[in-house]
Structure formats: C-alpha cells, structure tokens
Amino acid sequence: MEKQIKKEQSVENALNILEQSSLNKSELNKIKQHLKAYKFGESIPTSIFSNEISAFESACLYLRNQKMSYRKISILLNKSYNTIWLTVRNAQKKQKKPFKIRSKTQVPLSIFRNQQKTFLKTIITYLKEQKLLTYKEISLLLSRNERTIWTVYNRN
C-alpha cells in the first residue's frame, strides 16, 4: 500500500512539472495520458508477450494474474466478459510458467478502448508511432519475427 502511494505521488509530481514546462498542448496531453495510465496500473509490460500464446492471450492472462477481475479486464480491453474468461482459460492451458518481467517498456491499456484494429496491430502501431521504435526493436520486445511486425503494421 505504501509503495502504491509513493508511486501515485511521483506521478502527480511529474504531472505538475509537465504542466509548467514549455511543451505544446498536444504533446503535453499525450504525456499526461500515459502518466495517468501508469498511475492507475493500467499498462502492461511488453516483456509478457511470447510466441507461445497470442498477444491478446498474454495481456488477458497477465492482467488476471495481477488479481484483476474479468469484468475490469473486459472494460479495459473493450471486449466482452465471456471473451476474456475464455481467453484466460485457454492461455492458462497453453502457458504454465509465470511471466518474466524483463522490459521497462509499457503499453497503456487506454490504446485498446476505441480499438478498430487487431490487438497485435494496435500494440505495434503504438510502439511504432508513439514510442518511435524500429521494426527490429518491436520484434525483440514482442518476441515476434521482424517480418511479422512489418506485415501486421503495413496491413490495411
């Protein structure tokens, strides 16, 4: 509990510093959104993704392992309750070992709220356009082939 309070205070301090900076309004709003998502624990580390299970299964299983309810996961990922429940059940069968968090790169769950693209494409688009990562860097973070990343990103 004490750790959570310190985390929230440091995010609040960062938000205050940003408001006093000379960034333009759109840049400032983007940074504020990501900090708020981090503050409330509404982000997932990129190191949870593996080629054993899909990106969506990884995210659902990770959030469930963080003691989040199926209902809250369904709201955050903009999917139905039944879809989340079934996905977690299937992911638990496929992946027996716990996640190893080895990357500091986080993906905010807010990018999935108005999702028109596939789950993987949404993550890749965020990493490519917001974090300005190369296909190679994204492929390493998501444990996917670089050509797969390129194909998913460039698909209509």
How does this structure look, described?
The radius of gyration is 16 Å and the shape is globular. Helix 1 (2-20) packs antiparallel against helix 2, helix 4 packs across helix 5 (81-94) and helix 7 crosses helix 8. It has a two-stranded antiparallel sheet with strand order 1-2. It has 2 domains: 1-40; 41-154, no CATH class. With 156 residues, it is mostly helical. It contains 8 helices and 2 strands. The longest helix is centred in the N-terminal third of the chain and has 19 residues, at 2-20. It has helices at residues 2-20, 25-39, 55-65, 70-76, 81-94, 119-129, 135-142, 146-154; strands at 43-45, 106-108.
Key words describing this protein structure:
156 residues; mainly alpha; 2 domains; two-stranded antiparallel ribbon; 4% strand; disordered N terminus
Q: What is the secondary structure topology, with strand pairs?
A:
Blueprint: H1 2-20, H2 25-39, E1 43-45, H3 55-65, H4 70-76, H5 81-94, E2 106-108, H6 119-129, H7 135-142, H8 146-154
Antiparallel strand pairs: 1-2
Low-confidence stretches: 1-5
Would you tell me the structural class of the helices and strands? Answer: mainly alpha
What profile does the largest beta sheet have? Answer: 2 strands, antiparallel
Residues in helix, %: 55-70%
| Terminus-to-terminus distance | 45 Å
- Compute the average pLDDT: 82
Percent strand: under 5%
Spell the H/E element sequence. Answer: HHEHHHEHHH
Widest β-sheet, arrangement of strands = 1-2
Rg calculated over all Cα atoms: 16 Å
Instruction: Specify the overall morphology.
Output: globular
Structurally, the number of domains stands at 2
